[in-house]
Design a protein that fits this description.
Helix content is 66%, strand content 0%. The protein is mostly helical. It has a single domain, classed as Amino acid/polyamine transporter I. The termini are close together. The mean pLDDT is 85. The structure holds alanine.
């Protein structure tokens, strides 16, 4: 009993039974793949890829994408085994509760805030930059004071003068999305499907047109020589870039947070996770290859690298359409991240880890609306006042930690409960989870000391809350 007390899968099911019956099971495998793509293709590919190519890897960013995708595939397989075996909302948090006990579950739940809530803030900041650029194309110039946080470059002049007070567009988009989520999951899934269609079309158009205008000279040298600084080009740069662009892959695991609303979770969850991961990996590799072929990597160090690349084709008018598609793409990412976060809080509140108010459902919409409102305020405040790079790296390192623990969870549960039915089993066990642990921790290592310090500080705050509050409130399981 206590901090190492674990839940059995039956405990979990009975704990959530009452709430389960109030959420509607409407989502299919296809919906889940759309939710996955909706969350994955976003600021990572549209903004961070160009910056990572310009600062770390050059055209070899393609190799970074392949390396990161290998880590994601290992973790994705592990997620699938657990998601099918424990088809209950809560993602890695739930799996850790079953395999490693209450304290580790709390720490995972706490680091998932970095992935979902802080990730949503990151994307909102990127959305704001593209929205400002789009409006600017039509002569609408926002006052600099409300266009960025005080520590960010001026997105209107693209200069380093810090004239911003707060980021109003980022706040507005978070408010709109939170209100949509309060209205209900089915409604949100339909909106998500339309947006996913738009953004996948944008990616395909970019690849399909761009491939004919690649300048092969841009690929020379394919791996620029290391500048003498670790992580700045050469092989260390490629590895650093794989940690940086890992952000682009974040989100496929959000599928597992919708288990309570999925019709046939045992089959749909692994199919949804692996399906969306495969599609996104292919698109990312093709996209980054075309991006670095259209423009020299040195010119891609901007918030909107896609626009720079398109300018090198005979179709500059594509810029507006592409920016609009990117705005839609980023919107759906925020939608899924905020949905996932509210469902994780919902389950944690059900377990007593968080105050009950987080699991209170709206009488007619049947959504955790108070939780959505609290999240809306927190995420909007962070997006209003924080620079993009800090929240982006925090998101990556926190998610990688959660992924590592999911891979460990698979190994522990195979050992502790070999008898439990597993509708989907990780192939080549234990090779896959071990490789998942190694690749994810490797990417974390390359993210550098300052991000480790931030992660450890975040976890220490989490431990204080756990020992000061949650530990005394949790339901204990035998
Ligand atoms: N993968 C998501 C993005 O790139 C978080 O925006």
């Amino acid at each position: 009993m206590g901090i190492w007390s674990k839940k059995s899968i039956e405990d979990l099911k009975s704990c959530h039974e009452e709430k389960n019956s109030q959420l509607t099971r409407t989502l299919t495998t296809f919906d889940l793949i759309l939710i996955g793509i909706g969350c994955v293709i976003g600021a990572g590919i549209f903004s961070i890829t160009g910056i990572a190519a310009a600062e770390n890897a050059g055209p070899a960013i393609v190799i970074s994408f392949i390396l990161a995708s290998v880590g994601c595939a290992f973790a994705g397989l592990c997620y699938s085994e657990l998601a099918a075996m424990i088809p209950i909302s809560g993602s890695a948090y739930t799996y850790a509760y079953v395999s490693m006990g209450e304290l580790v579950a709390w720490l995972i739940g706490w680091s998932l805030i970095l992935e979902y809530a802080i990730g949503a803030s990151t994307v909102a900041i990127s959305w704001s930059a593209y929205a400002i650029s789009f409006l600017q194309d039509f002569g609408i110039i926002l006052p600099a004071e409300i266009a960025a946080s005080p520590w960010q470059h001026n997105p209107i002049t693209n200069t380093a003068n810090h004239t911003g007070l707060f980021n109003l567009p980022a706040v507005l988009i978070i408010v709109v999305i939170s209100l949509i989520l309060i209205r209900g999951i089915r409604h949100s899934a339909s909106i998500n499907a339309v947006i996913v269609l738009i953004k996948v079309s944008v990616v395909l158009v970019f690849i399909g047109i761009g491939i004919f205008y690649i300048n092969p000279e841009n690929y020379v040298p394919f791996i620029p020589e290391n500048t003498g600084t670790f992580g700045s080009f050469g092989w260390s740069g490629i590895l650093r870039a794989s940690g940086v662009i890992f952000f682009a892959y974040i989100g496929f695991d959000a599928i597992s947070t919708t288990a309570l609303e999925t019709k046939d979770p045992n089959k749909s969850l692994p199919r949804g996770i692996l399906g969306s991961l495969t599609i996104c990996t292919i698109l990312f590799i093709a996209f980054s290859f075309v991006l670095t072929g259209l423009a020299n990597y040195k010119d891609l160090d901007v918030a909107a690298p896609v626009a720079v690349a398109i300018a090198n084709t005979p179709f500059p008018w594509l810029q507006q359409i592409i920016k609009l598609g990117i705005l839609a793409g980023l919107t759906s990412v925020m939608l899924v991240l905020l949905l996932g976060q509210s469902r994780i809080f919902f389950v944690m509140a059900c377990d007593g880890m968080l105050p009950k108010v987080f699991s209170r459902l709206h009488p007619s919409f049947h959504t955790p609306w108070i939780c959505n409102l609290i999240l809306m305020i927190a995420v909007a405040v962070i997006a209003a006042f924080t620079p993009l790079s800090i929240v982006g790296h925090m998101t990556s390192i926190g998610t990688l930690m959660a992924f590592t623990l999911v891979c460990m969870g698979v190994m522990i549960l195979r050992y502790r409960h070999p008898e439990y039915p597993r509708p989907f089993k990780v192939p080549l066990f234990p090779f896959v989870p071990i490789m998942g642990i190694l690749t994810c921790t490797g990417m974390m290592a390359f993210l550098g000391l300052s991000n480790w310090i931030r992660l450890i500080s975040w976890l220490l705050v989490g431990l204080c809350i756990y020992f000061g509050y949650s530990r005394h409130q949790t339901k204990h399981f035998n």
